[in-house]
Amino acid sequence: RRLLGAHLISELLQENFELPYRPPIFFLENTTFKQQVQAFSNIDILLSPHGAMLTLIPFLPRCSSVIEVVPFAYPLGGYFSTLTALSGVNHSFIYLGADMHNEYDPTLSVHDQLKARDALLCAPAHVLVEAVRIQVDQWRRCCEFAG
């Protein structure tokens, strides 16, 4: 899965947080496991679609956060919230539907389930920026506490 407009989102984050750099966008498909671990060990706030790459959560540093973007009609079974809790990482999610509990239909055909899990996720940019803002505040508090 990928976030539609990832480069625009990165640009918006740079502007909104007055960063001297543009937050990096990376894809793990053509990287070694070692490269993946190195990448994750340098992330403070990860904005990512729900997917297998989140199994690298245990390699995130202390005080880091994950913002998981969950597709419409996808059952959020706590897969990564448990992993983040066990890893000491903060977790939040953005659901791309109206009502997660009522939109998932387990009787859908495999074809319809795959369609619901579209590879391109489109999340409202202002929602993503606000989610990052919340996680930045939590990251700062954690770092102050950790001293």
TrEMBL record:
Residues 1-67 form the Glycosyltransferase 61 catalytic domain. It comes from the Eukaryota. GO terms for molecular function: glycosyltransferase activity. This is Glycosyltransferase 61 catalytic domain-containing protein.
